[in-house]
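Researcher: I'm preparing a figure for a lab meeting and need a structural model of a single chain. I don't have an experimental structure, so a prediction will have to do for now. The sequence is pasted below. Please return the structure as tokens so I can convert it later.
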Amino acid sequence: MNRNARLPKKTTRLPEQPSPDRKKGALKNVRNERPKSSKPKLMLVDDDRRIRESFSRALTLYGYNVIVAADGRDALALFQKKKPKIVLLDIRMPDIDGFTVLRTIREQSTTTQVIFITSHGDMGLVIDALRAGASDFMPKPIQIEALLTVLKSAEQRLERLKKSGASTPRLSVKEPLFAGASAPIQIRAFGSLIVRSGNETLQEGDWQSQKIEMVFKAFLCNHRKVISQTFIIDTFWDDVKSKSAEVGMFTAVSAIRRLLEPDLINGRDSQFLLSRGGGYELNLGRHGEHYDYDVDHFRRWIQEAKITGEKKLYEKAVALYNDEFLKNCDAEWVMAERDQLRDDYLRALLELARWHFAEKNYDACEQYAEKVLQIDSLFETGYELAIKSALAQGKQGKAARILERCNRAFEEELGVAAPQRLRALVVQ
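Model: Understood. Here is the structure written out token by token.
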């Protein structure tokens, strides 16, 4: 189908121009709002001269380095020459439509933020655009305040991509995400989130948008549970109109389904992200066959260790917990899961410390006790095992230093001295 046939006539609200008697003061206020840091280079693509002139002038006043293109051919030529970080792209143009421009840009850059300018109410086209690789969309009529919000989000995504690319080593597709992982879908959630499906590996900052990444994290925290559409919209799109919120949600769900099932045909039911009445359920299938998830491995080993008392199971679980669950996510709905996993980790460390103390492996006992104290500096049992291990080796001075550290932590955090029973250990 010819996409241009679906496009309604343009209706764009131009930025309001200040009257002559207040123009000078208005321009001064706008300049005062400019950030001190330089803005990324931005290309505005639209065949309407009034839109190009009005919005390029307005965005320049807000500190953007704006270049303009009147059609798709000019846009592609300028993109190759100027390398803008953000592209505001109209879909309906006389020569090359926005989808063709988008595909060509994506062949050259996966990080450029391409924001589609769409006609009001054409939600199907918005979904097609986001599936095709657009970073965001801006409905008409355009208002400068809403546009600045969208551009701010684009800048934040660019900054995350920059930090991620500079600090996070890329993983080989052949390298498992953690020891023992071999299933087609692999997920590592201790520390920074990494998802592998087939030949595609997504680390934090690689996702099409931050909201899609966050929606996936919400599904992961509720694996095998139904999340209502109302929760998703209220949590991630509470600041936009209901129709745009629905589009954002449907786009995120579609993107996650295609990540997990790259060959999923439009209109077919997903195998892993299921529609459930007024919500969705992430169900990744059989663990070890369809997917490997480090948190599920951790939980299984902890549970089996509680039943059997087998030390090796605790050791495997502790080795897998290399950092806090989804450490870069501070959302409230993550905290309960994170706290539970941290508590299980602490109990595993204590079991191993006690086992090594009973076996008179005092150095190993101290190492596990130290790991406990790194997580919780007020954990009395951690100090107790560390002090007892030092005393068992005749290291009275070391035991005194551990007690001093305990006393300092309790005074700083609680305003009280170390517990009497710990002081009594060193005095003896």
